[in-house]
TrEMBL record:
<dbReference type="Pfam" id="PF08002">
    <property type="entry name" value="DUF1697"/>
</dbReference>
<dbReference type="InterPro" id="IPR012545">
    <property type="entry name" value="DUF1697"/>
</dbReference>
<protein>
    <submittedName>
        <fullName>DUF1697 domain-containing protein</fullName>
    </submittedName>
</protein>
Amino acid sequence: MHRYAALLRGIAPSNPNMTNDKLRGVFTGLGFETVGSVLASGNIVFRSAEDDVPALERRIQRALNDELGIAGGTIIREHAELRALLDSDPFPGLTHGRGTYLTATFLKDGAGPPERLPEQPDPLTRVVGYDGAARVFLAVIDNSEPGTTPDFMSWLERSYGADITTRTWLTVQRIVKKLES
């Protein structure tokens, strides 16, 4: 049995069709086991014997769209991938906060790695790297100026389209903890 995290894009907890109980209901209806949610921003953990991740992503996204009208993307990572990412300690000595907003931007399974990382794209972002095993960009963003979108996030959208989703490092840690409970 595989332990997975589904990272859903475009979830607005204030939307009555996007509450954790409705999201979990879709996953339970698909026959997944040990379905749980992490925070209210579209992070669902579950177990399944299925091992074709792209097929799982398509199946879940189709069900979310059909049952709840959620057209955003679904990105899945296996527990082992996320655990290895945490164990690699990509943000040594840093603490998540306004001036050091630690982020992980996940690519859809099957998306190719970048030919090269962008140069430090703007003064608000420090690109830490790209983890090929977890298919994730890691960056430290200065979030002390609300309402500004760093150029790095725009570069990610231009390069990979809507097949990405970003989580804070704290959220990634919470997801792994939930997968291990």
